[in-house]
Amino acid sequence: MKILPLSITLLAVLLSACTVGPDYIQPETVDTATIRHQEGWQPMPAQSWAASGNWWLAFEDDTLTALVERSTQANQTLAQAEARFRAAEAQWRLARGGLSPEVGATVGGSRSGGSGDTGRSATEQYDARLQIGWAPDLWGRVRRGIEADQASLQASAADLAAARLAIQMAAAGAYVNLRALDRQQGILNETMVAYDRSATLTRNQYDAGIVSRADVIQAETQRQSLRTEMYDLQAARAREQNALAALLGIAPAELDLQEEGEGLPAIPALPQSLPAVLIARRPDVIAAERLVTAANAQIGVAQTAWLPDLTLDVWGGVQSGSFSGLFDAPARVWSLGPSLAQTLFDGGQRAATRDIAIARYDEQAAFYRQTVLDSLQELEDALATLQILAEKTEQQDALLQLALENERVITNRYRAGQVSFLEVATAQNITLSTRRVAVDIHAERLAATLQLAAIIGGGWDLDDPVIQSVSGPNH
């Protein structure tokens, strides 16, 4: 009989090497080896666009760099994501604690007695006890729980990276919009100078009796319309700057970016080909895959409910009739014994719990596959947009040259009294519109480039330690 507790303990240790439930296998997804709007995917990029995920350096804009780096310091949305990550880390530590025995200590005292004919006097009893309890992880329930929480922690880290990237992209996008508005304002200022010259020319023509009063009124109307439009740009710029301040986590009054008429960043030179693995390193793809791992581990946790639980309890202590002599007392007590518990009937609860775990795994696997599909769609959209906008830029440049030449010819004919000011105004408006569309196209190309950086997880450096730290051993 003395050998029985030792035998049970040895058996528990041996069985603790067992882990119930399916081992994780990453779900298969669509083939990412072929991209329509790019000729071939390479194992590594032809050139590095940005090192270690610092994608913003490719734009070679010091203000943009400062704003993007500042955006991750005080943004409250990012602070929420960081808090969720710390909670996930604590949950993982909590799960790991289930593998360790619990040690506790108690000290107590009691006084008892009687009255009446018994003549019983009051007695005192004090005791101190040290307890050790351990539930061996026979079937891997705790280990599966740790596996699930570790995967959830990795998913939370990826969510944190995704939140950081989204904030950086939002700050960069707001900055691009701000500089595009500045460039639009610069164009309007330059156009106003041209309109002033035209108004002066028209008045001189009118004073010389060459044109009618209607031409003078039309020239003044054109100038006034442009002045009014400038206010719309100023209002839009104020809103954009306020939005940027909110992303930086500061009050709008604390941010004052001076206008720059030529402030749009240049379009970065992109590699000729992209590695297909970049889709798999996107934070949202990593998070979705890690959640599949967590859901798979929960199936194992649910399956262990059919197996018995073993608990080993050991305690020892001392007893005395006085507290002062407690630890010198000769009376020592102890207990050692295992207990085995098994649920025999639960009305189908364990089966339902297992089915829930399997269904949630299927849901997460489908979500992961859909996330990869969505990523490929976004990548195709961004590459197609960049390709089309590059071609559109060439056509717009050609159109601008034609508009400028047309304006020059019409203005000369007006000076010669051959046409009315209406034709001059029309030519000038065409030039203004063409110049503004060119700015819009440039801003769209910058936005598409930002989108591409976001789609592939921020930068094209495959050795990015941040990505490696959140991807996990199975990814």
Automatic annotation (TrEMBL):
Q: Which PROSITE patterns match?
A: PROKAR_LIPOPROTEIN
Q: Which domain of life is it from?
A: Bacteria
Q: Where is the signal peptide?
A: 1-25
Lineage, broadest ranks: Bacteria, Pseudomonadati, Pseudomonadota, Gammaproteobacteria, Pseudomonadales
Q: What is this protein called?
A: Efflux transporter, outer membrane factor (OMF) lipoprotein, NodT family
Q: Please provide the record's keywords in A-Z order.
A: Cell outer membrane, Coiled coil, Lipoprotein, Membrane, Palmitate, Signal, Transmembrane, Transmembrane beta strand
Q: Where do the coiled-coil regions begin and end?
A: 64-91
Kindly give the InterPro entries that the UniProt entry links to this protein: MdtP/NodT-like, OMP_efflux
Q: How does it sit in the membrane?
A: Lipid-anchor
Cross-referenced NCBIfam families, in alphabetical order? outer_NodT
* The keyword Ligase is annotated on this UniProt entry: no
